[in-house]
């Protein structure tokens, strides 16, 4: 999941495959797909009452941010890249806290979400992630940034399967608990990942201010 797929590489390959225009076009496609799926899952989660869909929406938001940062990594100064990562981390942390609040509200209300919407949107999200992973497959053995992007997309399919499993659990049990369990896990990962990104970004900004910037390992 994207919450665990953060990479900060301070030595971009200006002459490597990351500058390939085909790779850039694929990243733009991935960015658009993930941003659209974030909006779709956010709306579907609010309409269906599914906290798991809201949690999966965070994943798409994090991925869209990852693709955007990957597109700009060659053009942005290190300080701006760190600031962009800081905004990304704060956004993920905020959405994670929001989903945790939604989990608590759902537990108090006890009203099961609409499982058919959960399952159908989860299936669409799985297709979107698999499609993006297929586009990125040729670059899976590239530099650290490329490997990280492809691995994150591949791993996100697990989150989609979890949402579909939660939908089956809600349908089979008639209770809200499968949805809340998956949502809590996703929110926890988002909060953990957001805190990690914030920590790394603030550390990088401090290093830049002190003139002691070091390279970050890839995933």
Automatic annotation (TrEMBL):
One of its GO terms (molecular function) is monoatomic cation transmembrane transporter activity. The keyword Transmembrane helix applies. It is a multi-pass membrane protein. Residues 27-205 form the Cation efflux protein transmembrane domain. The chain crosses the membrane at residues 26-44, 64-82, 89-108, 120-139. It is found in: Membrane. Pfam families: Cation_efflux. This is Cation efflux protein. It comes from Verminephrobacter eiseniae (strain EF01-2).
